[in-house]
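Changelog excerpt

This revision adds worked examples to the README so contributors can see how folded entries look when concatenated. The first example is reproduced verbatim below.
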Amino acid sequence: GKDKVYIHTIIPPGVEAHDFEPKAGDLKFLTQAKAVVYNGFGMEPWLQEALHAVKHENVRVICAADGITPIKLAKDHHHHHHHKNKHSHEDHDEHDHEEEHENADPHAWLSLESAKIMVKNIAAGLSEADPANAAFYKANAETFIMEADSLLVKYRADFARLTHRHFVTGHAAFGYLCRDFKLEQSSVEDVFSAGEPSAKQLAKLADYCNQYGIKTVFSENAASPQVSATLAKEVGASVQTIYTIESAEDGLSYMERMISNIEKIYKSLAQ
């Protein structure tokens, strides 16, 4: 959108997206919004209700993940439902569509392939909300997609030459990135950061690290860094930070952070 749009982020920085419960103040902006972009894949269970609450029927609702093949989660990785079922039964039908993605990994944006689809969806939605600038949005989306494609070509070739394809992260947010480059992740925490892992889980991960000769354990702000540090010490690996791109980080753009992530993972596997 560049200078043609004014963006307001609903979820405050530092709040875990899955735990977000909007207050009236958070939704004030929604009453004037022309479009609202959400991720999808069950990441924003509060959104339908919020839109209902502000009675803003003509806002364009853009689901960024539309058309991305979801990565299914193992059954035990289900969402922890923080919103205790407040809905009455007749309210249920609009949640059914959310339910089908209940067991999808929501972190699609951490993949350049998926980001291309998301950007197309966003450009299309902005063009509908603001037809006068449609060509501008489309051109910007195309530039983004070209950049993503050239990075995918470059890094696919790099990763294809590696024998090591396993890396370890603080929480399992990188499934879609793994799909881009045929990698495998194992993580200290499940897809949703759910507190400290047990000694048993840590021991299992330590075995995994030793089995695959893991030299680097990646840590994000969302997951607990001391756990990653403990694990790394145990298996003689180093800890490096990785971006989950869930809020602003280090003043970097999306592409800069993705390149940083991919480079770090590549270097760790190429050792």
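The second example, added in the same revision:
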Amino acid sequence: HGLRGAHADADLAFVADLARRLGVPFVFTRVDAAARDGRSPEARARALRYEALERLRSTGGYAHVATAHQLDDQAETVLLRAVRGTGIGGLAAVRPSLDGGRVLRPLLALRRADLRRYLARRGLAFREDASNADLSIPRNRLRAEVLPALESIHAGASVRLAALAQLAAQADEALLGELDQRLEDLAESGDGGIWFEARALADLDVGQRRRALLALAERAGLGGLITRAHVERIDAFLLRAAPGRVLSLPRG
């Protein structure tokens, strides 16, 4: 990602050597996540990473990309999105699969500690991302301070947060299923942006309307930047539908 210098080079060398010893084909690619574009470094790195993985998948002729997200990642993401402001779709957090199965998360039901115990039993080494020690990064602070506190209050807090994400995903999929056929009628791309049919949106109930707006924002590439507050502002803006008014959103 171009963010960690020598630490990243050492991680790269570790993985390349492990792949060689296991007889696993290995490729890597570099992206520039240091170049600012209005997103946080973490969000920028994530977007660039998935774009690079998709290029590798498609050019290599592979069916899937499998990532190593696990249950503790899920619990962290649920809490981060909840405190930032989100809806049911956001609480679904890390999905078991994306893009019709092109991205899979096969370890999502496993705890981080279980995976480390497995590696210890097998006598396998692993690398710790050096940036995980930086508590100025919200996820790191939540991992180091908040979730341990929640576990001390209620043992199994992380497991229950992950279960909440699963319930939210089921509810969100049901709502999106109801909206799927209508999304095409609610908005269309053209002339430098997205054009909304304000009257058609107004006919939806507030929950459906705001979920539709989030889905349309995601299609426009704003999924990682739009919070619940943004969706509420867009909703109010479109319902007024006043000529000459302007609403500012992330990335211009």
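Reviewer comment on example two: The first strand starts at residue 65 and ends at 66. The longest helix spans residues 157-186.
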